[in-house]
Amino acid sequence: MTEPAARATPAPGGHRGPGRLRRSWDRHWYAWAMVLPVVAVLAVLIFYPLGRGIWLSVTDLTEANQQAKICTRSLVGGVTCRDNPDRWEYVGLGNYRRVLTGEVGRFWLWTTNTVIWTSASVLFHYTIGLGLATMLNRQVRGRGLYRVLLILPWAVPAFVSAFAWKFLFNERLGLFNSVLSAAGLGPVDWFADRWTSLLTAILTNIWLGVPFMMVALLGGMQSISPELYEAAEIDGASPWQRFQNVTLPGLRPVSLTVVLLGTIWTFNMFPVIFLVTEGQPAGRTEILVTGAYRAAFEGIRNYSLAATYGVLILSLLLVFSFYYRRALRRYGEVW
Amino acid sequence: MNRRRRRPLASVLLHAGLVTASIVALFPIVWILLSSFKPGYAVQSTELALVEDPTLANYRFVLAETQFPRWFLNSVIVAGATMAIGVFVSATTGYALSRFNFPGRRQLMLLFLVTQMFPVAILIVPMYTILARLGLIDTLAALVIAYLTVAVPFCAWMLRGYFDSIPRSLDEAAALDGCGPFATFWRVVLPLARPGIAVTAFFTFLTAWGEVAYATAFLQTGRNFTLAYGLQQFVPQFNPQWEYLTAAAVLVTIPSGIVFFFAQRHLVSGLTAGGTKG
Question: What fold characterizes domain B61-270?
């Protein structure tokens, strides 16, 4: 043990560092041991790929030029290798320029779609979730049953829901068009127009995402002290006033978090757009993640392009979170 | 809250609202369930009918003529392993975040948030390279690892919120009784955190059960497909086999429904999203 020695000689700066480190280690080693597996896995599988992704985004790596050497087998069985003249290389910000100017893909259209898709989804997730949570928080007969039924969409895997809704919206045999036809309104070709197509995806996503919001908000409501409500009632507050002045402020920490998480998750939500609209019509309903996926992985896989999109998406989210946190810091920490 | 003096009209409106919402929540599921019992021509028809010539042929086809049972087993293995490991790792991490004010704690919390922002597109290729180097491509283990990176950050963070709601005095009492930090965690805190654990289990299971992108990238041979990936074979670009798809969708939803059934009692109390301060 060097620690007592270090303490006995309170001396030259050089000794204090290791001593402090040792004390810190003694005090915190079990905490670190508990988080170590997560940190190690995240480092290997998230942060190394992230670093490599950023590097790839300034190269021109594709499936076609990834080999460092080209080897040819001669007739007698010998193998001769030479350097690949078209080998992938550093290209600076070329990928970013091509993406942002619209030379490949349609970055700005997809970004617009992503913003519409994310804000509409999160807005309705939150308001509908809040409304349902308020209703479920009342003393109402059959509350347990209602709660199970309302959370049920959460238990359906996203890709199954996406198939289900695509089936419902099918131009020819979907339920919605059957009903509309029966009502004499004629079938709607949902996926032929950018806006109706986007609408199908947003409706699907709202259906998918409301249960999470509802559950989180309901949990938040139930942790608000009942005494606050009683006090408000004694002061003669109407139900609306109680909602405004007790429920909403009490929910603030939960709301801030679920809106931030919901925004991030929806922004990167892959299966709904990918499976429901498939970008129809003509790629005009892609959001950034699906558009990037198709641009980079259909045909010859373009790894550097995928990385470029990934970096751009991540940057957008980081900027958003930064301003979100800063705007809301006065209401308390979010994360 | 006690609403003794609610007027009848308000009561009717409340129930009307909840019933409407429940119908909206249920009808896609019910419609798929009904369609799965229809023969192909009825599913493909434009006529509106609730049930028509009910049959089990779709289920028979899916179960007997495809590799569905095999994929199902694969999915169970992947989702089960993700759930077991994910719950354990999230719990230890969440506990450390909740109880110990160690250097790096705040950074770790922020890091968890940032990992939520990483688009699959940026991770998938380098992850493929690493897994290939480890010889894990086309194995179920690759998927378990990938899904853990998706699920654990959120779950650890959520469980931290739940552990925060368990009084620290219990830990201190256990420490006085001679429990080390690990024993305190394992014997005292974990049993009290059952609702939080249930939500974590539900969340990790669902993450693994329904994921498509990683499965598409990391699996190659038909025997190793998970359901999410295998099912895509029913949806060829031009002639989707809706009748089989509906039956398969029902079969896929059953296991997640079972997990949901066990977890649902705890969902509301267990999901502590930002209930306490970081």
Answer: MetI-like fold (1.10.3720)
Same-domain pairing of A106 and A21: no
The DSSP secondary structure of A2-57, one letter per residue, reads -HHHHHHS---HHHHHHHHHHHHHHHHHHHHHHHHHHHHHHIIIIIHHHHHHHHHT
Please provide residue A90's backbone torsions phi and psi, each rounded to the nearest 5 degrees. Answer: -70, 130
Partner-chain residue, chosen from A226, A268, A334, that has the shortest CB–CB distance to B119: A268
ipTM of the complex: 0.84
Q: Indicate the domain borders of chain B.
A: 61-270
Q: Torsion over CA of B28, B30, B32 and B36, rounded to 10 degrees? A: 180
Q: Does A306 touch chain B (CB under 8 A)?
A: yes
Task: Give the one of A50, A150, A157 whose C-beta lies nearest to B228's C-beta.
Answer: A157
A96 touches chain B (CB under 8 A): no
Contact present, B229 and B215 (Cβ < 8 Å): yes
- In this prediction the pTM is 0.84
Which neighbouring-strand residues pair with A73?
Answer: A79
Q: How far, in Å, CA of B34 to CA of B29, rounded?
A: 9
| Per-residue pLDDT reduced to its tens digit, A267-284 | 988 888 888 887 778 778
The tens digit of pLDDT for each residue in A168-206 reads 888 777 788 888 888 877 778 888 888 888 999 999 999
Are the CB atoms for A23 and A32 separated by under 8 Å? no
